[in-house]
Amino acid sequence: MHRNRYFLAIDFLFIFLFLGVIMGYANGDFTFMGSHSYIFAMFGLFIMLSINSGIEEWLLHRKDKAFYHEWLNSLLYLMILFVLITGGN
Description:
This protein is mostly helical. The chain has helices spanning about 5-25, 40-60, 65-85. The protein has three helices and no strands. Helix 1 runs antiparallel to helix 2 (about 40-60) and helix 2 runs antiparallel to helix 3. It is flat, with a radius of gyration of 15 Å.
C-alpha cells in the first residue's frame, strides 16, 4: 500500500516530537512530570500514529472500512494506558 506523502510527513513529525520528548526526559528537562510519565509519551506516539493512519484511511479509502481497525487500535492503546495508570496505585 502506498501512503500519502502528507500523512507520512505527519507520522515523521510525531516520531521526531516523540524523540524530542524522550531526549527531554533523558536530560532531566521534564522534572515537573512524574517519574513514569515517559509512558504518556510512548502511548501518545502510538495513539497519534494510529489516529493519523485512521484519518488517512477514512479520507482516501473510505469504502474499504480499514479506518475502523486503526481507530479501534488507538482505543486499545487508550485502554491499556488507563490500566497502567490505575493499576500502579
